[in-house]
Amino acid sequence: MVENLAEDVHAFTSNVFLVTGDRTVLIDAGANFDVVSAIESRVDDLDAVVLTHTHKDHVANLEAVKDAFDVDAWGFDTSVDGVDHEIEDEETVVLGDHEYVAMHTPGHKDDHLCFYAREPGVLFAGDLIFEHGSYGRTDLPEGDHQELVLSIHDVLDMIEKDLQVMHAGHGQSVTTNPYGSVDLSAQTALNDAE
């Protein structure tokens, strides 16, 4: 089961996904709200925190979560404060009850990862891809529009057309034609690069 703990939060934060099952994992820690209490009201323990990337709105609550649950954080770049273990490109990661392929997808930030499980057809897109053809900003440090275009196309090549849901780093999860949102984002980002 996937639940967005930041869904009703009215502060600047990323989405924070609690994925329960065989391996209970928090995807991103968010910012500016009491995520620890939100977790404690749903589960007794966490097995890991997995990061899509380390922009402040995704990791400001990370230390509080690590302290409260005595848990380690996994991400692409262990040189970043708070990231304890590396997830390599194309590594398999268990989130909840399913195996996901980690994809290194720079462009929004150098350490950005997306996670895709063919079965059950779920994509965690972080801040790379959003609904309706939107995509992550590239005007922040480490942003690179050309890399972002390539990363979106890499995701498009990886996912199946019967993708069931895309969980993005901000906004609502996409359950109606999520593949179409990824495809449109690829086209929009490419057109904006020209």
Automatic annotation (TrEMBL):
Its cofactor is Zn(2+). Gene3D superfamilies: Ribonuclease Z/Hydroxyacylglutathione hydrolase-like (3.60.15.10). It comes from the Archaea. Pfam families: Lactamase_B. Keywords: Hydrolase, Metal-binding, Zinc. One of its GO terms (molecular function) is hydrolase activity. Residues 13-170 form the Metallo-beta-lactamase domain. This is Flavoprotein. The lineage of its organism: Archaea, Methanobacteriati, Methanobacteriota, Stenosarchaea group, Halobacteria.
